[in-house]
Amino acid sequence: MINGAHLIIYSRDAEADRAFLRDVLGYPHVDAGGGWLIFKLPPAEVAVHPVEGAESHELYLMCDDVEATVSELTARGVEFTQPVTDAGWGLLTRLRLPGGGEVGMYEPRHERATEL
């Protein structure tokens, strides 16, 4: 019945963030019209975490080797806002999008649902 999910990143500079996804991360895309690029993402997972306060949603990119990926993206001009830390469930960092937002990136140590 449900065959996919559509993620939306709200940005203060959508053009810059679209260019980042297209040119820096190299994600294939289609133009839905008027420059509205929609990107093909790698396989995804979703998790639900409990919260006491206001609900929010986050995006984490996953990689096989966080140190190598940080090095490669840094060479492409990507700014990382948090050093790689060991969160137990994975090695975690955060990167800044050109529009000012941030997304997490981690090397999972947990079983991946994308492998199901």
List the helices and strands and how they pair.
Blueprint: H1 14-24, E1 29-31, E2 37-39, E3 60-62, H2 66-75, E4 79-86, E5 90-96, E6 102-108
Widest beta sheet: strand line-up: 3-6-5-4
Shape: globular
Overall strand count = 6
**What is the count of structural domains?**
1
Architecture (CATH level 2) name: Roll
Q: What is CATH's topology name? A: 2,3-Dihydroxybiphenyl 1,2-Dioxygenase, domain 1
Major sheet details: 4 strands, mixed
What is the averaged pLDDT score? 94
CATH class: Alpha Beta
InterPro entries: Glyas_Bleomycin-R_OHBP_Dase, Glyas_Fos-R_dOase_dom, VOC_core
Domain VOC: 3-108
GO molecular function, one term: dioxygenase activity
Organism: Streptomyces formicae
Features:
alpha+beta, 2,3-Dihydroxybiphenyl 1,2-Dioxygenase, domain 1, 2 helices
Question: What's this entry about, in short?
Answer:
With 116 residues, the protein is an alpha+beta fold.
Could you explain the architecture of this structure?
With 116 residues, the chain is an alpha+beta fold. It has a single domain (14-115), classed as 2,3-Dihydroxybiphenyl 1,2-Dioxygenase, domain 1 (Roll). Helix content is 18%, strand content 27%. It has helices at residues 14-24, 66-75; strands at 29-31, 37-39, 60-62, 79-86, 90-96, 102-108. The model has no long low-confidence stretch (mean pLDDT 94).
